[in-house]
């Protein structure tokens, strides 16, 4: 009998781990997924032919390894007749295309589209570029007095920065100045997290908005004057928040993971839905097995394995571990906090104004909605009838909040009312509406998280246990970073490396470094690469 890897969770990290094991080892992966869906928070919901993602999921990365991986699963589709040149990380690559128009419904639906990005901030009943740009339109909308205050407060922090930089408030003010922080960051960030910015560690900002500042905005404004229009995706030389194009599967982000799941099962892996892992069995420095419960009939399913990958929330992982788990570790894990997510899909006959955006950040205080996606602008397959408008209104909350406890009908009324209040749509133009909920979407960087290193020290002692992905590491990673944690975990297994340091180092530093050694698809060198990536909002 060959070796088995038990993987908890069929999101991007868990599926990547399974695919890598099947491609590069003789280890058979078995994935246990508590829901009936594939993709975790990256799944795409099909509601009456209208597709909706649970938050924006752009496909781009500064990692060649991830970009190649994606394009191997799903090739690109563009309007070019033969080939498209993609530039990223100071490299050029020609990719064969089928010549289909990106929004042509007759085109292959198993392909990557090139999507033009437009993201704006809605504030004061006006739209502002995101990231903030010092364009004439922006300055005209803000007015002379606000503009002067912005420049003065920015110059002030250049000479008198907040030291030490302890909180997210300190971090953002040091980058943008107090005036811009109050206008465009404070209320939205507190809407997302439900706590004051002064209570969120600066580490969150260092990870999520690296390299972006008012100084960068000024530089970008100057460079844009000489910007050339071309058909490329230039990624290495620009901060990720300034990238103007990205790749996206024709049928939504979840299509990538559904295709990966299909390939995993063809290659001999197993994906077992509707099983929630409740008991992790350990012996000395090894995990020996798990017990999972079927969420439909409550039957318990014991499963032994040689390697274990966990993408389940750390809070639940520690609660399910048997053996002598230190009381301090249990208490810290129980105190970890998460932000939950409600997405309201609204189908409209029309909008009151044209919205060419992929998504919009809602800075307005008087509404609860934090972000709005316009799915029509993510490709022609996302909307059943292109003559209608399909929106995703995103609300951030906790399960203990009154908002989460509301009925779907009450949430629908709130969403429609807020569209009217923001003067974006009328109630009479609503054709259909649906409410979708997602628990533990965002791991929080406050509260018990400040002692997370003690959980890490405990879990790292188990040689065959690998914490990967966003919830698996309680780390606010994007998809590419979550995938890299899975890839590096498999690298370590192949190379016989037991330390987990290179997993935890992913997405921790300001600078991104390519692999120190190239990794062959079949043979991994003993010197395992370290990945450090930049991040986006």
Short account of what is shown:
The model is unreliable at 99-107, 233-243 and 509-537 (pLDDT under 50).
What topology emerges from the helices and strands here?
Blueprint lengths: L3 E5 L3 H13 L3 E6 L10 E4 L2 E4 L10 H10 L2 E2 L5 E6 L2 E6 L15 E5 L2 E5 L2 E4 L6 H7 L1 H16 L8 H9 L1 H16 L8 H7 L5 H11 L20 E5 L3 H14 L3 E4 L1 E9 L2 E9 L5 E5 L2 E4 L3 H7 L6 H8 L3 E11 L10 E4 L8 E4 L14 E9 L4 H4 L2 H14 L8 E14 L8 H9 L4 E3 L2 H4 L5 H17 L5 H4 L33
Helix pairs in contact: 1-9, 1-16, 4-5, 5-6, 5-7, 10-11, 11-14
Would you mind describing this structure in some detail?
With 537 residues, the protein is of the alpha/beta class. The chain has 3 domains: 4-41 and 255-336 and 446-504, FAD/NAD(P)-binding domain (3-Layer(bba) Sandwich), CATH 3.50.50.60; 128-224, no CATH class; 338-443, Alpha-Beta Complex (Polyamine Oxidase, Chain A, domain 2), CATH 3.90.660.20. Helices cover 32% and strands 24% of the residues. The protein is built from 17 helices and 22 strands. It has helices at 12-24, 64-73, 136-142, 144-159, 168-176, 178-193, 202-208, 214-224, 253-266, 314-320, 327-334, 402-405, 408-421, 452-460, 470-473, 479-495, 501-504, and strands at residues 4-8, 28-33, 44-47, 50-53, 76-77, 83-88, 91-96, 112-116, 119-123, 126-129, 245-249, 270-273, 275-283, 286-294, 300-304, 307-310, 338-348, 359-362, 371-374, 389-397, 430-443, 465-467. The strands form 6 sheets. Strands 10-9-18-19-20-17-21 form a 7-stranded mixed beta sheet, sandwiched between helices. Strand 1, helix 1 and strand 2 form a beta-alpha-beta unit. Helix 4 (144-159) crosses helix 5 (168-176) and helix 10 packs antiparallel against helix 11 (327-334). The protein is globular and about 70 Å long. Mean pLDDT is 84; it is low at 99-107, 233-243 and 509-537.
């Amino acid at each position: 009998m060959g070796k088995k890897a038990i993987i908890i969770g069929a999101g991007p990290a868990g599926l990547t781990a399974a695919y890598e094991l099947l491609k590069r080892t003789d280890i058979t992966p078995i994935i246990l997924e508590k829901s009936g869906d594939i993709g975790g928070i990256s799944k795409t919901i099909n509601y009456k032919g209208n597709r909706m993602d649970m938050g924006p999921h752009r496909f781009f990365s500064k990692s060649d390894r991830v970009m190649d991986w994606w394009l191997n699963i799903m090739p690109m589709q563009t309007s070019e007749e033969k080939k498209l040149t993609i530039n990223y990380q100071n490299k050029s690559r020609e990719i064969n295309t089928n010549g289909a128009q990106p929004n042509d419904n007759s085109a292959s639906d198993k392909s990557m589209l090139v999507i033009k990005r437009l993201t704006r901030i809605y504030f004061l009943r006006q739209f502002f570029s995101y990231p903030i740009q010092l364009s004439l339109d922006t300055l005209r909308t803000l007015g002379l007095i606000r503009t002067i205050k912005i420049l003065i407060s920015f110059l002030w922090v250049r000479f008198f920065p907040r030291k030490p930089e302890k909180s997210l408030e300190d971090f953002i003010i040091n980058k943008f100045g107090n005036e811009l922080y109050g206008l465009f960051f404070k209320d939205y960030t507190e809407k997302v997290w439900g706590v004051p910015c002064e209570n969120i560690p600066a580490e969150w900002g260092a990870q999520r908005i690296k390299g972006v500042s008012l100084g960068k905005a000024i530089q970008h404004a100057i460079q844009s004057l000489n910007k050339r229009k071309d058909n490329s995706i230039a990624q290495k030389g620009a901060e990720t928040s300034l990238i103007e194009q990205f790749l996206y599967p024709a049928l939504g982000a979840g299509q990538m993971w559904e295709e990966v799941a299909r390939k995993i099962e063809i290659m001999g892996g197993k994906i077992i839905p509707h099983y929630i892992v409740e008991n992790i069995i350990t012996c000395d420095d090894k995990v020996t097995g798990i017990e999972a419960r079927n969420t439909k009939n409550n039957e318990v399913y014991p499963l032994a394995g040689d390697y274990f990958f966990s993408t389940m929330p750390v809070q639940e992982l520690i609660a399910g571990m048997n053996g002598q788990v230190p009381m301090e570790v249990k208490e810290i894990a129980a105190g970890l906090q998460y932000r939950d997510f409600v997405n309201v899909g609204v189908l409209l006959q029309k909008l009151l104004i044209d919205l060419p955006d992929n998504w919009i950040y809602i800075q307005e205080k008087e509404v609860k909605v934090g972000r709005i996606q316009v799915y029509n602008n993510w490709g022609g397959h996302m909307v059943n009838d292109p003559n209608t408008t399909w929106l995703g209104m995103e609300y951030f909350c906790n399960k203990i909040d009154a908002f989460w406890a509301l009925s779907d009908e009450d949430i629908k009324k709130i969403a429609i009312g807020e569209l009217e209040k923001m003067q974006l749509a009328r109630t009479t133009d609503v054709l259909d509406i649906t409410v979708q909920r997602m628990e533990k979407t965002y791991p929080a960087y406050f509260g018990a998280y400040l002692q997370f290193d003690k959980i890490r020290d405990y879990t790292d002692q188990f040689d065959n246990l690998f914490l990967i992905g966003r919830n698996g590491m309680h780390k606010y990673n994007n998809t590419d970073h979550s995938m890299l944690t899975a890839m590096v975990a498999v690298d370590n297994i192949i190379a016989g490396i037991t330390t987990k340091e290179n997993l935890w180092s992913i997405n921790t530093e300001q600078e991104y470094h390519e692999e120190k050694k190239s990794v062959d698809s079949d043979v991994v060198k003993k010197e395992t690469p370290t990945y450090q990536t930049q991040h986006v909002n």
